[in-house]
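Complex record, two chains
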Amino acid sequence: MSQRAFQDAYPDDLSHCFGCGKNNPQGHQLKSYWHQQEHESETTIAHFTPEPYHTAIPGFVYGGLLASLIDCHGTGSASAMAYKMDHRELGSVPALRFVTGALNVSFKAPTPMGVELRLVGRFSQVKERKIVVEIELSANGVLCVTGQVIAIKMPATMQS
Amino acid sequence: MSQRAFQDAYPDDLSHCFGCGKNNPQGHQLKSYWHQQEHESETTIAHFTPEPYHTAIPGFVYGGLLASLIDCHGTGSASAMAYKMDHRELGSVPALRFVTGALNVSFKAPTPMGVELRLVGRFSQVKERKIVVEIELSANGVLCVTGQVIAIKMPATMQS
């Protein structure tokens, strides 16, 4: 994809997240992108292939990993949306970075191993300090997990 | 602790979970125990010290890991409660193993790095096929995260 990933636009000192930070070599390094950008029907997308050890029970992916992917795709999508609403270039300073206030995940079907997972996010609420992202995670075209990320603009006290 | 961990009583073929399986050397190997066993006020406990790379932003623990710990402490607690309700010894066959139907996590305060985390679970609903566990995660005595795990008895189709 020629787009820059949302997470790759985070400032270097805020890029250590285990789930999606480009500066965390041991992490998952999830990358999220715009999927559709039409006004009021924006969606975001990410793909991830779990490692064989990300097992729940043999053959199925560990729910904690799926929750993590939803979390990072949600906060990344929130950041990108905040830049878009501000008519600012992704990654321009001061950074618009979001943290998770709440994460709600519903496991609809067991997620099979050995398949690239697809996460699509859409926005159910967009305010300056709070953005809610609804995420569907599917494998082989089958919806496996739905999630909601209530993303809160990162308080200045958490930024160095 | 002289008690056997709930997760160590899972059958070998259901002990590969990345979050808590004793047969997953790359995983977190979370261990949950009874904390208090009085009838109708049972609580469960687990401790975990994150690795330095489990970062969210520098100094704080990655929310995906916290969600994962809550998930595994919840399903482990559900399994132990199911054995207790059945008046059966933990780990006796046929296994009483639970999977996550839904996981709801609320981040109340940033979770500091370099500290042992403490998870305490209590039961808000106990039925044969559905057990709901409410979990509080604290660091240095400060409540950082609350979570709810809706645990569903593992369908026979998921067991080998």
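Note: Residues 7-158 of chain A form a domain with the Thiol Ester Dehydrase; Chain A fold (CATH 3.10.129.10).
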